[in-house]
Structure formats: structure tokens, C-alpha cells
Amino acid sequence: MRPISAPFPMSRPRRLRRSPAIRALVRETVLSPADLIWPVFVCEGEGRRESIAPMPGVERYSVDLMPGLARRAADLGIPAICLFPCPDPALKTDDCREAWNPDNLSNRATRAIRDAVPGLAVMTDVALDPYNARGHDGIVRDGEVVNDETIEALVRQGLEQARAGADILGPSDMMDGRVGAIRRALEAEGHGAVAILSYAAKYASAFYGPFREAVGAAARLEGDKASYQVDPANSDEALRLVARDLAEGADMVMVKPGLPYLDICRRVKDRFGAPTFAYQVSGEYAMIRAAAQNGWVEGDRVVLESLIAFRRAGCDGVLSYFAPEVAGMLQAG
Ligand code: PBG
Fold it and tell me: CATH number for the domain including 280?
């Protein structure tokens, strides 16, 4: 694209910035509640809401509160909720078996939402970390996160999530070959309509810190996740991973974290044209929230600006802890 413009003063770009009406006419991207996926933390108990210290304004909710949250999402025009369980620590084991318990926290929450608001899409996390005594996304043997054995566990976990009624599976584990294995298992069991939103380019990021507190994995984690998550210095590698996951049957792909990786979002969208999502992760949320609470930035404006940036960078949608707040702002106009 090579726009032609006359020299000054025949061209005055400010003409198109003169009034809200003219700015609205030429605006290139829009953010709508339909672009948002709301990540929700689930805890044990009843009528229970727990605050999360590094994420002010975000809480964990017990399963019985899921229908209320689902109705809120639907009323706000948010199409999907993404569930992250924070199970009883006593259920964390080395083999991570709670991950494929049909009645685990995540599967109970899925059914609760399914029954209450059938039209809302439920996305689930396919990864072992909430159930792993060692805090890793994969099974640990002799200090190593083992790939192929983890895939078998992920397939069992993903199948139970589909049986519970999940619409979208989100493998966030970064093992090699997991998308194809999950896709084949879904097809074989008659869950061909269940979508996979692959965390294709998931970086080994320090921005996940508050999340690990939220799901109770922080204290357990031995070492770091650099042997399976992507080096933040790499960009071409992200494209290879997206290509691989699409070839294995992913329907949508994700880049994670969000704002520090907008260059990756743009490259992925330009190269593949697939439905592309970004995750504005817990550390990004915490930074914006903390600055806003201190009065150092205008919270509402910064939140909206941060989210329109994802749309501008080519993302079709964003997972954001700000989802309900932002949808409310957008509805209010
Ligand atoms: C782990 C998982 C993580 C997040 C989503 N799924 C953390 C990690 O990889 O350690 C991070 C989300 C966030 O920080 O908001 N399966």
C-alpha cells in the first residue's frame, strides 16, 4: 500500500483529527466486548471469593458462583470465559492425575457454566501445573520435564474437558506434538467440534508471576520453564511454532504475553491470517492496576489503550483480566 499525499499545505493530516466525528469516521480499528476472553480463577469451597494479592480487583470464585459470572459475561457481550483452577494443594501429585479427574475443579466449573448459560463459550487450560507437585506444566522425571509422557497426560486431561462440555481447549503447556495428539483424540471420540486455541508462541516470561500466585503454583515451581517456553529474544521461532500448531490442527493461535510481544502478533497475523489471540497476562494486569491505584496513570484510559493496541497489531481477540471492566466501559460508551 502506497498512499499518495499532496505536499503541505494541500495535505494537512490534522484535518482528519479535528473533531470526534471526523476521528470516528477514519478510525482504523475498533475494540468491542466480542473481542474479549475473560480468564477466571476457580477455587474450592462454597460461596467463596478469595482475593489475589498481586492482582487487585481479580478474585478466585468457587464453582457455585460460576453461573453468576457467566450471566455477567453474557450480559456484557463477552463471548467466552477461560477457566483456571486453583485446586486443593493436597491434590497435587507427581503424576498429576487430578488433571483428568472428570470431577476436578475445572470440569465442575465448566458444567456449571454450561448448564447456566449454554450460549457462552467455555475455554479450558490444558496443562498440568495446577495439579503438579513440582509446579511444572509437564511431568518431571529426574529433574527433567518429559515431553512424550506429558502428552499422554494432556490428552487425558483435554478429553475430560471436552466431555465436561468445554468449547475451546487451550493447550498452554508448550510440549512438542501436543496439539496433534489432542486433535486426534478429540476426533476419535466424537468431539470433532471442539476447537483448539493453541498457546503456540508462549514465552518464558517473568510476567506470569502473579498468575502462579493465583493458581497456587508459585511456591511449588522448581527452577524455571525455559526448557519448554520460548526464549524472549526469539521471533522467527514463534512463526515456526505457529506453523507447526496450525499444521497439527489448531483452529486458533495465541501469542503470550501480550504488550511486550506485539511485534510477534503482527508477524503471526501477517504470515498466517489465522484467528490470532494475545494474552494480556497477570504481570501486565498488575503493572497497569498498580500504577492506576497510585494515581500515576489514568487507569481506564490506559486499559482501553492497551487493548486497542492488540487489535491494531492484528489480533482478533485478547484474553484479559480487565475483560468485564472494559466491556462495561465499552457498553457505557
Ligand atoms: C500455565 C499457565 C500460565 C499462564 C497461563 N497458563 C503460567 C505459566 O506458564 O507459568 C499465565 C497467565 C498469566 O500470567 O496471566 N499453564
Answer: 3.20.20.70
